Amino acid sequence: MAIPDDFSEECLYGPEAWCLHDVLEIDVEGQRVVGWLDTTRLELLVANQRAVPGHPKHLPGAVAIQMTGTLGQLHAVYVLGLRATEGWVGFGTHIEKAKFGSLGEIGPPVIATLQCTRRRQFRGTWFTNYHFVFTQEERLLYESNQTAAWFNPRL
Fold first, then answer.
1. Mean local confidence (pLDDT), 141-154
2. Could you tell me the end-to-end alpha-carbon distance of the chain, in angstroms, rounded to an integer?
3. Residue 148 in contact with residue 119, Cβ under 8 Å?
4. What separation in angstroms does the CA of 56 have from each of 37, 46, 88, 132, 135?
5. What is the mean pLDDT of residues 129-151?
6. Is the pLDDT of residue 140 over 90?
7. 104 vs 43, which has greater pLDDT?
8. How far is CA 68 from the centre of its chain?
9. Does residue 51 carry a pLDDT above 90?
10. Cα(100)–Cα(93) distance, rounded to whole angstroms?
11. Do residues 24 and 2 lie in contact, with contact meaning Cβ atoms separated by under 8 Å?
12. Whether 84 contacts 72, CB under 8 Å
């Protein structure tokens, strides 16, 4: 499955900042989104890394964090139905137990998984808890628990 065509209208960032290049799965019932990142298409941050002995060009941590936001937005739009075109906006609030398991190489793709572990609505705001796991060639690159809040200022 490709990234849905209307995501460019629904996402709070433009396509150049998604840091995901495809969607492999959107499981509404299972509250899960799986994306795919082509590590050869990370121009800005990777092009500006200085490769020196012991510090090869690699998947930057900033890209991993941005990927969590894109996955969260995909979950909000296509699982929870919270569309930016209807006024919904969201913000990450906490990153807990973040672990960079190994250095992400430039070349092999990254599989990025979001699992929503809890969602609740309070006074019109949706609060979501996510567990993220990013792998490359079956190696753990990044894992974290994060929370986000989604609200609609029009309501």
1. 97
2. 33
3. no
4. 19, 10, 40, 25, 18
5. 98
6. yes
7. 104
8. 3
9. no
10. 19
11. no
12. no
The domain limits of the chain are 7-151
Return phi, psi of residue 99, to 5°: -140, 125
CATH topology (fold) of 7-151: Thiol Ester Dehydrase; Chain A (3.10.129)
Residues in the chain: 155
Q: Is 75 helix (H, G, I), strand (E, B) or coil?
A: helix
Lookup: tokens for 128 = 């979501």
Task: Give the pLDDT band of residue 44 (cuts 50, 70, 90).
Answer: confident
Element (H, E) at 24: strand 22-27
Count the helix, strand and coil residues of the chain and give each as a percent rounded to the nearest 5.
Answer: 25, 45, 35
DSSP lists the bridge partners of residue 119 as 128
